[in-house]
From TrEMBL:
Its EC number is 2.5.1.17. Keywords: Transferase. This is Cob(I)alamin adenosyltransferase. The gene is cobO. The lineage of its organism: Bacteria, Bacillati, Actinomycetota, Actinomycetes, Mycobacteriales. GO terms for biological process: cobalamin biosynthetic process. Signal peptide: none annotated. GO terms for molecular function: ATP binding; corrinoid adenosyltransferase activity. It is an enzyme of class 2 (transferase). It comes from the Bacteria. Pfam families: CobA_CobO_BtuR.
Length: 207
């Protein structure tokens, strides 16, 4: 896309404005680092233009703290106090979804699968209600890969979502059905990583 212009314009009957404003389903997958980081960068852009942002983190433990979470919580408070940017919500499966307060941190795989199903049910409801403008479903490919959620049902819900709701999904091994449905797919490939040289993750780089 030279200079940000499409290489071809489809004969779909839409105006340039309508085509530009079509909601995006994006998938960040692959073995490399940066999938979630890129998604949170997009969320930052969305917040800056006044979109309401909701992040749903699957799989991660409640003990895992990421810098983006702290930053977005501050941005949410800034919006509440000054009206700048957009509203922000951040939810973690590992700490028990905030709307259920049910913690399954020490549970079995069945408990984690049930927690993932709870999260997806809530996201589906919010999509139907057009609750948010921009969703990050972080590490959402794993519940799909592990069979905790039905891929066809998830894809159908995402494709049928009303309004102008953007959704970004991260995680390795995105299923082909999801990739086919997405508007934007990026595969992160590792060339080098500090851990290859025995170096552990660093504050400010990994979290």
């Amino acid at each position: 896309m030279p200079q940000g212009n499409p290489t071809a314009v489809p004969n779909d009957g839409l105006t340039t404005r309508a085509r530009r404003n079509t909601p995006v389903l994006a998938v960040h997958t692959g073995e490399g680092k940066g999938k979630s980081t890129a998604a949170f960068g997009m969320a930052l852009r969305a917040w800056n233009v006044g979109m309401s942002v909701a992040v749903f983190q699957f799989v991660k433990s409640a003990k895992w703290k990421v810098g983006e979470e702290a930053a977005f919580r501050e941005l949410g408070q800034l919006h509440e106090s000054t009206g700048v940017g957009g509203a922000v919500e951040w939810h973690k499966m590992g700490s028990g979804w905030s709307w259920t307060r049910k913690s399954r941190k020490a549970g079995s795989e069945l408990d984690h699968a049930a927690a993932a199903a709870d999260g997806w049910a809530e996201i589906s409801r919010r999509l139907r209600e057009q609750r948010h403008d921009f969703y990050v479903l972080d590490e959402f490919t794993y519940p799909l890969k592990w069979g905790w959620l039905d891929v066809d049902e998830v894809v159908a819900t995402l494709q049928d979502r009303p309004g102008q709701q953007h959704v970004v999904i991260t995680g390795r091994d995105a299923p082909p059905r999801l990739i086919d449905a997405a508007d934007l797919v990026t595969e992160m490939g590792k060339v080098k990583h500090p851990m290859d040289a025995g170096r552990k993750g660093q504050k400010g780089i990994e979290w």
